[in-house]
Design a protein that fits this description.
There is one protein chain. With 247 residues, the chain is of the alpha/beta class. It has 2 domains: 189 residues, no CATH class; 36 residues, Single Sheet (Ubiquitin Ligase Nedd4, Chain: W). Helix content is 36%, strand content 30%. A 5-stranded mixed β-sheet has the order 1-2-3-7-9, with helices on both faces. A 4-stranded mixed β-sheet has the order 6-5-4-8. A two-stranded antiparallel ribbon has the order 10-11. The chain is globular.
Length: 247
Amino acid sequence: MSYLLLLFIVMVILASSPSFKGKIGERKVKYYLSKLNPDRYVVLHDVLLPSQNGKTTQIDHVVLSGAGIFVIETKNYQGWIYGSERSKKWTQVIYKRKQSFHNPLHQNYGHIKAIENLIGSQIQPPYYSVIAFDPRSTIKKMDITSPQSFVIHSNQLVELIEKHDESVLSRFQIKGISERLKSRMIVENKAAKAHIKQVRVDQQEKKRIVNSGVCPKCGNSLVTRNRKDGTGTFKGCSNFPNCRFIA
């Protein structure tokens, strides 16, 4: 096998990996966000922050504006995308093949809480949870009820952010929040690798707790409920609506 053929095979394998596709999506979003006026917005990319219990959380993009804080999760998926705000899993349909993935709005909720904890209670700006899909995807009907949650294509980000022109945060406050986040950002490569390992361990532990019939968010028992559309049942926290965990 020639060297060029081997190199081609390696490149094809790498290009098809989820991590590589994710990085491509993040770079596209980084390009789109570069079009924002730097005099009005502060944009941070690949933000790795300390979270609760000595853990870390990785955020794709954060935009600070007068209207509040936009927390952006990038999904470089194509095909048809189905989901709802409360469901545990969303669905991607591509070439007649279905596959599920974790609800990115739930993931972004953890990102927002990490930022809130770092900023403190003295400033309480609005938070906008934004899920940005590849423009080549088709976002089907989404059941999103929160007025501060958005599921859009990545090339619509700038329009969405600029449309929110409220003056909630002053330029001084935006600068202060930016410096606060930058001072707490973890940039060491070792920490990034530890974060990935931690995520895998957390997912396994969460699955173990759910299988034992316990809610991993609040510790109450899980109960079986019927879906509103009559398509089956699901496990939910018995402490609903105080806890909205769905297995």
